[in-house]
Design goal:
single chain, Rossmann fold, seven-stranded mixed beta sheet, two-stranded antiparallel sheet, binds S-adenosylmethionine, rRNA_adenine_dimethylase, RNA binding, RNA-binding, 16S rRNA (adenine(1518)-N(6)/adenine(1519)-N(6))-dimethyltransferase activity
Length: 277
């Protein structure tokens, strides 16, 4: 038995035949000390409903529940994992709801809305193939403050660096502008490849994002268009890269030197540019 009274994860994986599938981005965490550390990075969970994407055999799910999460709603696409997750659910009666389905087709705001009271926190060891897309969806929700009070997410280190990137760095791009605009994002800690089964090729990082109470006002779709154009040609001067949106005249209206490049603009300047479109 593990410290939570459930069988060790290796035994769970063996008894349910859960060999990892690459196509589903399956790199499992089997060490409850590490999954406990991720749960702690999400802060106090005792009043919280946690939304977890991709529980797999349930390593992180178990840590969240063991850490005292009031409730966990976990969305898993791989039906092979459902039996193992049902065992976790039985061990913590009334606290784990497993949704069998595709996170990309899930209405997270509706899920959160159905959760009765308390903060909603998103915590996940995300499948790498859909991690960035999910994060962008969560960062660009129309309603602000959003349905969640924090996000604690595992990414490849290179993606984590893009999320927390500041102007002037090579990693700074659309993701850094969106994350910096709406959240306070930081890398909590790195996780080496050998912590996963099977090990991925690269180091991973856990990123913690806390929504800003009042981000600078901007229309999210427009900001998306501006950053797409600006970083689409990141080596070019802005007067060239944002030509289709108004070029030099637009930049002058926003008070931004048209000879600058996208990677030098602060989030505040991107917002100004957006509002001038
Ligand atoms: C990196 S593994 C993490 C597993 C587990 N949480 C852990 O930490 O050991 C990603 C998980 O996401 C699941 N997954 C992949 N694509 C998904 C999707 N579109 N919707 C929901 N779950 C998905 C995979 O089946 C897998 O269980």
């Amino acid at each position: 038995m593990s410290m939570d009274g459930l069988p060790p994860l290796r035994a769970v994986i063996e008894s349910h035949g859960l060999q990892a599938k690459k196509a589903l981005g399956q790199n499992f965490l089997l060490d409850l000390n590490l999954t406990g550390k991720i749960a702690r990075a999400a802060g106090d969970l005792t009043e919280a409903t946690v939304i977890e994407v991709g529980p797999g055999p349930g390593g992180l799910t178990r840590a969240l529940l063991f850490s005292g999460a009031r409730r966990v709603i976990a969305i898993e696409r791989d039906e092979r994992c459902l039996e193992a997750l049902a065992e976790v659910s039985n061990h913590y009666p009334g606290r784990l709801e497993v949704v069998a389905g595709d996170a990309l087709k899930t209405d997270f705001a509706a899920l959160a809305g159905a959760a009765s009271g308390g903060p909603v926190k998103i915590v996940a060891n995300l499948p790498y193939n859909i991690g960035t897309e999910l994060l962008i969806r969560w960062l660009t929700v129309t309603e602000w403050p959003p349905f969640y009070t924090s996000m604690t997410l595992m990414f490849q280190r290179e993606v984590a660096e893009r999320i927390v990137a500041r102007p002037g760095s090579d990693a700074y791009g659309r993701l850094g502008v969106l994350a910096g605009w709406r959240t306070d994002a930081r890398i909590a800690f790195d996780v080496p490849p050998q912590a996963f089964t099977p090990p991925p090729k690269v180091t991973s990082s856990v990123v913690h994002l806390a929504p800003r109470a009042s981000p600078l006002p901007a229309e999210v779709k427009k900001l998306g268009r501006v950053t797409e154009a600006a970083f689409g040609q990141r080596r070019k001067m802005l007067r060239q890269s944002v030509k289709s949106l108004g070029g030099e005249a637009l930049l002058t209206r926003a008070g931004i030197d048209p000879t600058r490049r996208a990677e030098t603009l602060s989030v505040e300047e991107f917002v100004r540019l957006t509002n001038a479109v």
